[in-house]
């Protein structure tokens, strides 16, 4: 039996990278009948609205996007009778365990996180630019700017991986299906498990295993060297699950490829073509190499047509279902309420044990 946990930020309607790198895997786990009979796995999927607070958000907008994400997950096939689908903030123990884990987390471990380091770098860059624009004399110290960069960033962004570890450990998850960008955070969670067990001389937590799909890193449709992301300011760079058929076709048609003739899968030399093949393969349940072989004599334009067809036929039913669900807010609210009660039960039982183990009241 697998105990599965995964989370997604409340960014409204998810993009194709979320779907292929993660959500599709969540849905597939529901179908895994390998042990026969009922679903052998216990599945917990959370819309992580506490994580969303690390970037200042309008409260009304945050609520709306949390709700939309929950509806989108159901539209993608998350069945609330097979999976526990819940808002992270509805289960107080996430924050409680976050604090307990933060108190045993060395700062150095968090300093090493690449997502944090890239935020820090961006901040340094901005500070250098604004300092340079202000300073005309030679007394400007680049060094000084560098050492102060972290001061402008929010603590929550720094401790983000601790909350993520708390999410996983609170359910004693054995498996965590995510895209590649979350792997380092989960390695951190594994390190914390060992650290906690050693510190408290208890084998309380199990080591969570990361589950990746072959489409663990879907790239931008504008720049195939960057990952597809909701935060990309260019909307043409991503497909969102509620894009119209026309929008999907147009975005794929304009995606940069190369002038090599024939279709081959070679992410290093042909990142644009290879990204399209990865998308196609994930949707047609094949692998990119076989897809390339089957389409080897096609032109890039023909490949794009095939990819657009695959994306449209997979996403249009999801889009329609999402539209239907968003029209019945009470239904979604009721599902979340029921599922949150289930999540709370599991989480608070585990939190009681943890609290006892570390000597505080639960
Ligand atoms: P988030 O919300 O950024 O992304 C949700 C999931 O989508 C995957 N993903 C991608 N996969 C492939 N290609 C892409 N271009 C792409 N973009 C996003 C992400 O890897 C992720 O699996 N910190 C997490 C949420 C979280 C979580 C957790 C995950 C909070 N607590 C506990 C697992 C376990 C995040 O921000 O994901």
UniProtKB/TrEMBL annotation:
Domain of life assignment: Eukaryota
Catalytically driven reaction(s): tRNA(Trp) + L-tryptophan + ATP = L-tryptophyl-tRNA(Trp) + AMP + diphosphate + H(+)
Enzyme class, spelled out: ligase
Xref: SUPFAM superfamilies: Nucleotidylyl transferase
Subcellular location as annotated: Mitochondrion
GO MF, one annotated term: tryptophan-tRNA ligase activity
InterPro entries: aa-tRNA-synth_Ic, Rossmann-like_a/b/a_fold, Trp-tRNA-ligase, Trp-tRNA-ligase_bac-type, Trp-tRNA_synthetase
Keywords linked to the UniProt accession: Aminoacyl-tRNA synthetase, ATP-binding, Ligase, Nucleotide-binding, Protein biosynthesis
Keyword Transferase: no
CDD domains listed in its UniProt record: TrpRS_core (cd00806)
EC number annotated for this UniProt entry: 6.1.1.2
Pfam families (alphabetical): tRNA-synt_1b
Coiled-coil ranges from the UniProt annotation: none
Similarity comment: Belongs to the class-I aminoacyl-tRNA synthetase family.
Protein name as it appears in the record: tryptophan--tRNA ligase
Record lineage: Eukaryota, Fungi, Fungi incertae sedis, Zoopagomycota, Kickxellomycotina
